[in-house]
Amino acid sequence: MYGQYKTIDEANRAVIDKVVSSAPFLVDVVPAKSVIQELNGKVLLHAGPPIKWENMTSPMQGSCVGATLFEGWASNADDAFKMLENGEIEFIPCHHVNAVGPMGGITSGSMPVLVVENRDGGNKAYCTMNEGIGAVLRFGAYSEDVINRLGWFRDVLGPVISKALKVKGDGLNVNVAMAKAITMGDEFHQRNIAGSLIFLKDIVPYILQTDADEKDKQDVIQFLADTDQFFLNIAMATTKAVMDTAREIQHGTVVTAMCRNGHEFGIRIAGMGDQWFTAPVNTPQGLFFTGYDQDMACPDMGDSAITETFGVGGFAMIAAPGVTRFVGAGGMDDAVTTSNDMMEICIDHNPNFSIPTWDFKGSTLGIDARKVVETGIEPIINTGIAHREAGVGQIGAGTVRAPIACFEKAIDAYAVKLGLIDPQ
Amino acid sequence: MLYTIVKQNSYQDSVNLMLLTNKISTMEDINKVQIMMGTPANKDILKAAGLYTDELEGAASNDMCIVVDTDSEEKIQEVLDETDNYLNNQAISAGKEAFETVRSWDKATNALPGANLAIISTPGQYAAEEAEKAIDRDMHVLIFSDNVTVEDERRIKEKAHEKGLLVMGPDCGTAVVSGVPLAFANVMKTGKIGVIGASGTGIQEVTTEIDRLGAGVSHAIGTGGRDLNDKIGAITMLDGIKALAQHSQTEVITLISKPPAKEVRDEVVQLLQSISKPVVAIFLGEEPHNHEGNVYYANTLEETAAIAVDLVKGNPIKSNYNTLQGEVPAVNLKPEQKTIKGLYSGGTLGYEAATLISRGLNYDNTGEHEEGYLLNANGFEVIDLGDDIYTQGKPHPMIDPDTRIQYFQKAAQDESTAIILFDLVLGYGSHEDMAGALIPGIEKIQKETKAKGKEIYFVATVCGTDQDPQGIDEQKAKLEKAGVILRDSNNQAVLTSLAMLDIQIEEVQKEVVATKETATAEITVSEAIQKLLTEKPNVVNVGLKKFTEAITANGGRVVQYDWRPVAGGNPRMRQVLSVLR
């Protein structure tokens, strides 16, 4: 019934063993359309499960406008809106093409993407590069500055890092960077300062050896030094690559993806392959920058919950004392409680990522959808909070829960698929 | 000889690796060991230590290098296994006393690996399921919850019995295991009297009385009220008696029960007579006339405790322990004031009061009662305010004073009422100051009746010990100050109340008669039950959090399981989960 596995528990164990044995390496930065065939037409990738234009949040629509302008498909925002409303541009979820995207997750063919290869499975995953804070595309901004920055990414940042990685030769071992960074207070969703620093430390010697223009090298290094969350997108591509290898085992109840499109939250479980199980998203709760409040918060968006799927992010709250207050948790005790609660719905600890502040227990490993339903503990996700209007950008940070209905639908469907229960 | 293992791309913090090196170096037949990441600096250290090998040449900074100097090659696999084991289990046991809170059985047993007892206080409909989960994990169970069906109770108890486990309950309100009070329980001296009972306040009254008389209790095992029902067949009672019979520190066994079904009773008594220890038994409501062999039958809870204490102290056994003690307070009553209203929070205490008052009145109280009454005859009433019909949507009267005060007032309005008789049960779980909570109500009634030119007397017993969190002396002092007439036992409180109305109870004198020769039974007790009776329990507390306090305060270890219904009680999801096991 469960393939080569005798029980669901055995199948689940096989899935999480794949997570533990993963060997993800950052190998390159390339134009998205060079690795994602679908992006060679008028196509945009978006975060979360499939969504129609009319159901997109304002920030996600703003991102689409920005990408449309960046690709030169329209010369002004009004025309871009018209094209999008008229259905002239096709939408595909990032997850359907081995990619993940933060917040709106809007990715177009000319944008450079990080390439992470999981050498354990041989597969690759892609993610755009972090734009920093303020007016940025992922939060729905499409001003000239935003489009110009994307151009610099395409022409300078991407190619320079790509060259540096070629000098390095065999890629950067991301597990090693993450194992170090988690002991330095990162949880890889809300906080990536240590990871970004490690990346900077690892990549700069190679950047300096490239034949890139000196000014470009200087600008790239400065940008990386300034961008605390740069590593988030590396972590996202990494965790996507790892979870995609793991989900080659199409049995059991381990959650292999969690993502949100601002309209619906979607999950996948190993035993149901590519199928999405969705429910309306929640709106994140948290702390807001001066001048903003909860009423302005946009419903939950982004593929970044792939980090929680992997066992970091909100699940590793205890690893990141620096952000516990920022994300609305009360302090160390609440952080411990949060991680302990998440352990209730997970199968094991991941020995690769030992967390000092958690008595050196490893990060959580393998969300079991059955346990989520059984205990009623909804996975917690650390997240940035977007303004509900496009272009304002990030207005705060906090946490949000994955709706339990997704998990109920998933295990119900799995039990039906196995013939263990009649459809409802 | 030097052996080298390079684990590629396996980064660990240097502190972890130093700790691991220390651990491996303590293994037998290991001359030297060093585990480091393969950085150039570390390779230099290995060279200096004479542990450098050619295999290290190719090791990179992200590779873990294990170099072992040993004479036996087969040690290498052991080192590798130990390394993996260490790296997979880096959790530090902090050894904190404070308990952990979990949300599932798996986490509970992880948090407290030696857990051998579960206290279940979930809503009744879920209690059987949770009890079975505990039994599946080789734990004894105390089911505090009520509303478990007889069928479920039998199934659970049979399953536990098969596995050599003990099920206390359902509806087991109290127990004391190896000095650790469980659920609603009193704190008492540890001693040589083992108690087993099918009644909560019956156990509390007997054990606190034993404590007051200067002896101590080894264990108090609750069986749940239905255990001696013919549908259950005393599964827990029989296993419990055997366990106490075999427990070397227990010298006297005390059994408390309502009268069981005939065949069940015969089986229990036969077992009692086949063990070598003296036994005191009370079948509440019966009037025993003799002791039989090693089994002494008591007529009241007070007598039960007194016989047990004399047995354990080696004193001769008197033929009657039930005589009224202390002076009978003088009373000033109107002619119409002729009755006692017993308003109890402890069911068995109320039951005993009803039995004794009926005897005093020569009233046959064996028939069916009006719902909620333990006795209702000629204006004499005894009510168990802890009965379901009084606790619907209200807290139990051991926790909340309101229902009791309300019934005090109702009793005071009855012209025939001379005496209001009540109990006050102390211990973990009970109200922190019930005396203080009841006194305003009592004083109000006293004031109102005085204004009418008459007196109503309050007579009470406090069931507790001086080690209880409330402190029995403090509680008694408060009640006495308010004019409540206090007696040390429920029996004495009832006898005093009756005597105040000039009613006496004729007590039989009991003699020891020999029994038929009974073969000494072969008693076998499972290891799990033996362990329960010899060590402080490690408890998974499923449900009511306040039960943790008594356990941690008395040397037990506990993990709190914040229980919620599986899948929020969604029936479809429960079904899906059960097929996806």
In short:
The complex is a heterodimer of chains A (424) and B (581). With 424 residues, chain A is of the alpha+beta class.
Ends of chain B: how far apart? 50 Å
Distance between the termini of chain A: 21 Å
The average pLDDT of chain A is: 95
CATH structural fold name of the largest domain in chain B: Rossmann fold
Average of pLDDT of chain B:
91
Which bin fits the share of residues in helices of chain B?
25-40%
Q: What is the domain tally of chain B?
A: 4
Shape summary of chain B:
elongated
Task: Report the top-level CATH class of the largest domain in chain B.
Answer: Alpha Beta
Tally of alpha and pi helices of chain B: 19
Main attributes?
heterodimer, A: about 425 residues, alpha+beta, Enterococcus faecalis V583 fold, v583 fold, 2 domains, 4-stranded antiparallel sheet, 14 helices, globular, B: alpha/beta, Rossmann fold, 4 domains, 6-stranded mixed sheet, elongated
Overview of this protein structure:
The complex is a heterodimer of chains A (424) and B (581). In chain A, a hairpin with a 4-residue loop joins strand 5 (112-118) and strand 6 (123-128). The model of chain A has no long low-confidence stretch (mean pLDDT 95). Chain A has helices at 8-20, 32-35, 58-70, 77-85, 144-168, 174-182, 193-209, 214-226, 230-246, 306-310, 321-324, 332-344, 369-375, 404-417, and strands at residues 24-31, 43-46, 90-93, 99-100, 112-118, 123-128, 172-173, 255-261, 264-269, 277-280, 285-288, 301-302, 346-355, 361-367, 380-386, 394-401. Chain A has 2 domains: 24-234, Enterococcus faecalis V583 domain (Enterococcus faecalis V583 fold, Alpha-Beta Complex), CATH 3.90.1710; 250-417, Alpha-Beta Complex (v583 fold). Chain A is built from 14 helices and 16 strands. Chain A is α+β, with helices and mostly antiparallel strands and 424 residues long. The longest helix of chain A is centred in the middle third of the chain and has 25 residues, at 144-168. In chain B, helix 14 links the parallel strand 19 and strand 20 (457-463). By secondary structure, chain B is an alpha/beta fold. Chain B has 19 helices and 24 strands. Chain A binds chain B through residues 8, 23, 173, 175-176, 179-180, 183, 253, 337, 340-341, 343-344, 349, 351, 354, 358-362, 370-371, 373-377, 408, 411-412, 414-415, 418, 420-421, 424, and chain B through 9, 11-13, 16, 62, 87-88, 90-94, 100-104, 107, 564, 566-568, 570, 572-573, 575-577, 579-581.
